[in-house]
Design goal:
Elements (H helix, E strand, L loop, with lengths): L10 E4 L7 E5 L14 E6 L5 E5 L3 E3 L4 H7 L3 H58 L6 H26 L25 E2 L5 E2 L17 E4 L11 E3 L22 E2 L2 E2 L6 E4 L3 H12 L4 E4 L7 H5 L3 E2 L3 H7 L2 E4 L4 H9 L4 H4 L5 E4 L5 H13 L3 E4 L2 E2 L2 H6 L2 E7 L1 H6 L1 H7 E6 L5 H29 L4 H9 L6 H12 L8 H17 L5 H15 L12 H4 L1
Parallel strand pairs: 8-20, 12-13, 12-15, 13-14, 15-16, 16-17, 19-20
Antiparallel strand pairs: 1-2, 1-5, 2-3, 3-4, 6-7, 8-9, 10-11, 17-19, 18-19
Subcellular location: Chromosome; Nucleus
Keywords: Chromosome, Nucleus
Family: Belongs to the HIBADH-related family. NP60 subfamily.
């Protein structure tokens, strides 16, 4: 592509990762947002979204010359809304330019008039000075020159200064309504952080009052081109930290609406497959927030409670998918996830163009990639969205959702994610969420094993386990997780909040992930062996904290 000359304020088409070119405007970046190293790039603010990104020059095209071309190849509703936003922006700009031109003409006339009056006043003053100087002796020529200069200065400056003071604004300064014709900012954008301390704020739109979004929910999105960024960028109501060294990363918050502190549910029909520890809490919260939900579970009796709460019953996964717009699934492991999609009367049989499938199971990246391929091959849309949390957090609607795949589908799931969780992250292409979820659970499982090891070591050395917990709760390791799991052990209560067999499965998959990239995972491997011993002691269906029993038997 031939090089184009672009500058601040230009309207452009920006290519952002694997997504289609999108209309935007080159703007000044926030002062604390550092420019990525490497090739020349501009900071672009995209219309119709809350996206802002550093985009390389070769990924930008001028807006007007390529407008018709882009409209032909992009037909989506959100894309059309973005183009409409550009046209509205141009109309407003044109109107303000015309008003500015009219004001400038009037100002120029006033200035010319003021200058003419100033010249006349200066001429009169000069004549008076000349008469006065005629009386001075010839030998005082130098003094005459100095007096004449000073008098002329006074005579010319004062009227001009008075005229300028009477002018509605100083020369060169734009009127208030011309300050910065930036694209209106959504209320969700509050603060973005780069580095560890510096931060900036986007100003609210002048034309649109700031509205509060759901104060309990945050969206994080990561879009990648070429190389992945070293971490995510985030826009939330609260301060979040971000660093980026390579590639182009967009920052956007998915659309959401809060009404009196509650969630406005999507009008799409929602399906849900799998009513285990996590799925049950998720469905309950979807129903509470007003979503239309159809449920299916391998053990049909588990559906009864949700039917009483207003859910509809699906006889097979295929039937649920065919009758719903977006179908979620949350099952135990890779085999269950594949069987659900590929088995008899499975999800795949209900998929047709436009149907959406969201897999919330914690599985490996290969499994989720295979599922995505078969869903998309039938014209469906796919999103992986495993969740971090436990039964209690699921019941409370406080899960953390890790999503990857179809970003448009991620946005369509916004109200659902708000109902079931406190935070969602969009991590790019399919497989990223699976990998991240396994890493998170690897850390959690290893930590749980270490807690159990510490408590048993305290016991055998004559130390109080309760005192150990008190000390930990006063230190840097203090957390709800630590306290709850220690209390489980001290009370001998291993009622499942997160099945031990599932955390061992996640450790096994995380170790395999490390092996696939030749990365050592010795701590996870050691923890995995302890969980395997606990399973051998019939602790599989107990809470993960029952790993403690592997140390005392």
């Amino acid at each position: 592509m031939a090089a184009v000359s672009l500058r601040l304020g230009d309207l452009v088409w920006g290519k952002l990762g694997r997504y289609p070119p999108w209309p935007g405007k080159i703007v000044n970046p926030p002062k604390d947002l550092k420019k990525p190293r490497g090739k020349k790039c501009f900071f672009v603010k995209f219309f119709g979204t809350e996206d802002h990104a550093w985009i390389k020059v070769e990924q930008l095209k001028p807006y007007h010359p390529h407008k018709e071309e882009m409209i032909k190849i992009n037909k989506g509703k959100r894309f059309q809304q973005a183009v409409d936003a550009v046209e509205e922006f141009l109309r407003k700009t044109k109107g303000k330019d015309q008003a500015s031109s009219h004001n400038s003409t009037e100002e120029k006339n006033r200035r010319n008039s003021s200058e003419e009056r100033g010249k006349q006043s200066a001429g009169e003053e000069k004549r008076k000075t000349s008469l006065s100087e005629g009386k001075v002796k010839k030998g005082t020529g130098e003094g005459k020159k100095r007096v004449s200069s000073v008098s002329s200065e006074r005579g010319s400056k004062s009227p001009l200064k008075r005229a300028q003071d009477q002018s509605p604004r100083k020369r060169g300064r734009p009127p208030k309504d011309e300050k910065d014709l930036t694209i209106p900012e959504s209320s969700t954008v509050k603060r973005v952080m780069t580095g560890t301390v510096a931060g900036f704020k986007w100003p609210p739109s002048v034309s649109e009052p700031v509205k509060d979004s759901d104060p309990h929910f945050h969206h994080f999105l990561l879009s990648q081109t070429e190389k992945p960024a070293v971490c995510y960028q985030a826009i939330t109501k609260k301060l979040k930290v971000c660093e980026e060294e390579t590639g182009s990363t967009s920052i956007q918050a998915a659309d959401s609406t809060a009404v009196n502190g509650s969630i406005t549910p999507t009008d799409k029909k929602i399906g849900f497959l799998g009513l285990g520890l996590m799925g049950s809490g998720i469905v309950s919260n979807l129903l509470k927030m007003g979503h239309t939900v159809t449920v299916w579970n391998r053990t049909a009796e588990k559906c009864d409670l949700f039917i009483q709460e207003g859910a509809r019953l699906g006889r097979t996964p295929a039937e649920v998918v065919s009758t719903c717009d977006i179908t979620f699934a949350c099952v135990s492991d890779p085999k269950a996830a594949k069987d659900l999609v590929l088995g008899p009367s499975g999800v795949l049989q209900g998929i047709r163009p436009g149907k959406c499938y969201v897999d919330m199971s914690t599985v490996d990246a290969d499994t989720v990639t295979e599922l995505a391929q078969v869903i998309v091959s039938r014209g469906g849309r796919f999103l992986e969205a495993p969740v971090s949390g436990n039964q209690q957090l699921s019941n409370d609607g406080m899960l953390v959702i890790l999503a990857a795949g179809d970003r448009g589908l991620y946005e369509d799931c916004s109200s659902c994610f708000q109902a079931m969780g406190k935070t969602s992250f969009f991590l790019g292409e399919v497989g990223n969420a699976a990998k991240m979820m396994l890493i998170v659970n690897m850390v959690q499982g290893s930590f749980m094993a270490t807690i159990a090891e510490g408590l048993t070591l305290a016991q055998v050395t004559g130390q109080s386990q309760q005192t150990l917990l008190d000390i930990l709760n006063q230190g840097q390791l203090a957390s709800i997780f630590l306290d709850q799991k220690c209390q489980n052990i001290l009370q001998g209560n291993f009622k499942p909040d997160f099945y031990l067999k599932y955390i061992q499965k996640d450790l096994r998959l995380a170790i395999a992930l490390g092996d696939s990239v030749n990365h050592p995972t010795p701590m996870a491997a050691a923890a995995n062996e302890v969980y395997k011993r606990a399973k051998a002691l019939d602790q599989s269906d107990n809470d993960m904290s029952a790993v403690y029993r592997a140390y005392i038997h």
